[in-house]
Design brief:
Radius of gyration: 27 Å
InterPro entries: PGRL1
Number of helices: 7
Shape: elongated
Structural class: alpha+beta
Strand content: 15-25%
Strand order of the largest sheet: 1-2-3-4-5
Number of domains: 4
Keywords: Membrane, Transmembrane, Transmembrane helix
GO molecular function: oxidoreductase activity, acting on iron-sulfur proteins as donors
Helix content: 25-40%
Number of strands: 15
């Protein structure tokens, strides 16, 4: 195996070479014909992890992305709920396959390993850290974009009936909240300063930019939208997109640390934690 310097791994044989591109699509090169073609051959269990078609029993070759998703789902299912999606041998083969493919997902850092261990201990009824420590660790991993602490696709657990998903912060709409105050301050400044100073509006805009900016932040954050945070993501039950607003509006109290939301599509209720943006449905009766 060699690397040609362009992020392409190449495995050679006397007449054929297999190339995995940076886009993780496997190509085959036939030296006899001098042509590249996309690999569509049958999956070989001795060389890679293969899925099995339940209807036909035929082996299916998976992409790197599909294998990574299966690996992540298996880990989360085992540590979060104690259920094994794959046997030990299948999991080891999948992990080895991903390692040879150069996937970074199989290498856990210390925080991720500690997080998964905490989840496993909690499910066994012997927690190894407090709720505050767990939430702080999860928040750190979330800020680092760890795939083990952030799941943007809903997952449901059969044993509890609870569906969970991690929402994302809506920075675009959060910034739009400053627009009303910004517009009022800007046009007020422009009209009054022009009437008094009779200077070029562009020059007046430059002079007033910083105080208008500071005034916008102060008025919006302290008087209009207090302690605001907007999150969006799929409903844990039906995957319909939902948005949640945390904070107060003009003194009217809104959601604080936890929001209780009712999905407008499926009508299921779920809660969202402000600190982690973790959304979860209520346990099924």
């Amino acid at each position: 195996m060699s690397d040609n310097g362009d992020g392409v791994a190449e495995t050679r044989s006397p007449s054929k070479a297999t190339i995995t591109s940076a886009q993780k699509r496997e190509l085959m090169y036939d030296a006899d014909s001098g042509r590249f073609f996309e690999s569509e051959g049958e999956c070989i269990p001795a060389e890679e992890y293969c899925a099995v078609d339940e209807n036909t029993g035929k082996l299916i070759r998976l992409t790197i992305e599909e294998k990574e998703r299966m690996f992540l789902d298996s880990l989360q299912s085992y540590y979060f709920s104690g259920r094994q999606l794959l046997s030990d041998d299948e999991f080891d083969l999948l992990k080895e396959d991903l390692q040879w493919s150069g996937s970074a997902l199989v290498s856990l850092n210390r925080k991720e390993a500690r997080f998964l261990s905490a989840m496993k201990a909690y499910n066994k009824g012997t927690p190894i850290m407090s709720d505050d420590e767990y939430n702080a660790l999860k928040l750190e991993l979330k800020n680092e974009n760890s795939k083990f602490a952030v799941s943007t696709e809903p997952k449901c657990f059969i044993d509890t009936g609870i569906c969970t998903v991690t929402l994302q912060e809506d920075f675009f709409r959060s910034n739009l909240l400053y627009l009303p105050v910004l517009s009022i301050l800007y046009f007020t400044w422009l009209v009054l300063s022009y009437e008094i100073l009779h200077l070029n509006p562009i020059f007046l805009t430059i002079i007033g930019a910083f105080p208008i900016y500071k005034g916008t932040l102060t008025i919006t954050d302290q008087y209009v939208f207090t302690n605001q945070k907007i999150a969006y993501g799929p409903c844990p039950s039906c995957e319909a997109e939902n948005r949640v607003f945390f904070g107060d509006i003009l003194g009217v109290q809104g959601f604080g640390e936890q929001a209780e939301v009712k999905c407008p599509q499926c009508k299921d209720k779920f809660t969202v934690l402000r600190s982690t943006l973790r959304a979860s449905t209520l346990p099924k009766a």
